[in-house]
Amino acid sequence: MEINILAFGIAKDIFGVSSISVEVSEQGNIATLKALLEERYPKLKQLASYMVAVNNEYAEDKLIITERDEVAIIPPVSGG
Amino acid sequence: MEINILAFGIAKDIFGVSSISVEVSEQGNIATLKALLEERYPKLKQLASYMVAVNNEYAEDKLIITERDEVAIIPPVSGG
Amino acid sequence: MQTQIEIHAEPLNIQQCIDWVMSPDSGGIDVFIGTVRNATKGKTVLKLEFEAYNKMAISEINKITKQAFKQWPVQKVLVHHRTGTLQVGEIPVIIAVSAAHRDAAFEACRYIIDTLKQTVPIWKKEFFEDGEVWVAAHP
Amino acid sequence: MQTQIEIHAEPLNIQQCIDWVMSPDSGGIDVFIGTVRNATKGKTVLKLEFEAYNKMAISEINKITKQAFKQWPVQKVLVHHRTGTLQVGEIPVIIAVSAAHRDAAFEACRYIIDTLKQTVPIWKKEFFEDGEVWVAAHP
Lengths: 80, 80, 139, 139
Hints:
The complex is a heterotetramer, with two copies of chain A and two copies of chain C.
Chain A: E1 2-7, H1 9-15, E2 19-23, H2 30-40, E3 51-54, E4 57-58, E5 71-74
Parallel strand pairs in A: 1-5
Antiparallel strand pairs in A: 1-2, 3-4, 3-5
Chain C: E1 2-8, H1 14-21, E2 28-34, E3 39-40, E4 43-44, E5 47-52, H2 54-71, E6 74-82, E7 84-87, E8 93-99, H3 102-119, E9 122-128, E10 131-134
Parallel strand pairs in C: 1-6
Antiparallel strand pairs in C: 2-8, 3-4, 5-7, 5-9, 6-8, 9-10
EC number (chains C, D): 2.8.1.12
Pfam families (chains C, D): MoaE
Family (chains C, D): Belongs to the MoaE family.
């Protein structure tokens, strides 16, 4: 299935755009997605850390993704 | 010697005026003054506490008062 | 290291106070604003009256702000206290502290209001429907 | 128990924020104001850019303010965060908390800014004379 991924902050710079599409296997989870992204964008691995948000909530590695989810890459936050 | 004493807050209510004059013996100290005042105004003893300030500084009981000093009764403060 | 201390009967101006402590080398400002509450220990408060021994109060606040500069890396410290009659919702005190980092601003601001309430010769009278009382005067 | 949360690109208005948290049953207000500092680790900062994942940021701030209401007896809580380009001296964030007693206002305000900096999806890019960097992105 095709998953649309929003990118913010330095993740947007790494992707070069503010949203990308990746092909994830059915029953793919956050860990699957991270592995895919890190292969395509090795600079992600150089970040201090990063999280994935699904439907505006921080998601754990084992969460299964569906096509209807809003998925976003959350690099280290620095608001305030 | 004649000492002029400023009163604030409830001390002003107890004295009935914002400043009074009391006769203190030469070499009289803060303890002497407090004893005199408490005799004349027994309600001072009912306060939670009170301090005497001399020249805008909190004064200890043993401080000797002179005629040139600015003396004030400082009942429990409650600013802020 | 700059300090502004004022005690007067005019309404306090929040924006002016904050503008004064702001500076290009500060990263955070903590501001404490006291307001007249409509009740104390369940009793309706009608108004408050504040009285200050002005000269000594300024001198005592000055001691407190000096100590704050000693204890924390703060940049500008402002203390404004109002006297006279205040209605519910009005502002008796504003304390504003700027610092490069927020820790210092929060801690110094807290220290200043806490110590002000303990040592500065200012007195507050609460007016209720059935009488009035000097706060903290009696045990 | 009222909350006002806003994230937008317009300049933040201190007086409006404070007016909103004031109430006749509050006795104290603590306000934290973040300001853009002219230097970081000794390097001159020219400007900052803030970007937010708005929907999620609002939701995360909402979690923080709910927790503040659980932990402290506070009355009104306001969090405004600005996005876009900010010059030195401008204000990226205002947090204001009113409470009957100052302890709760100070502690909740401190908790909110500390937690906001850890969990809310907002990002800051610093612009120097010789380049730019996303704050905290790299180890």
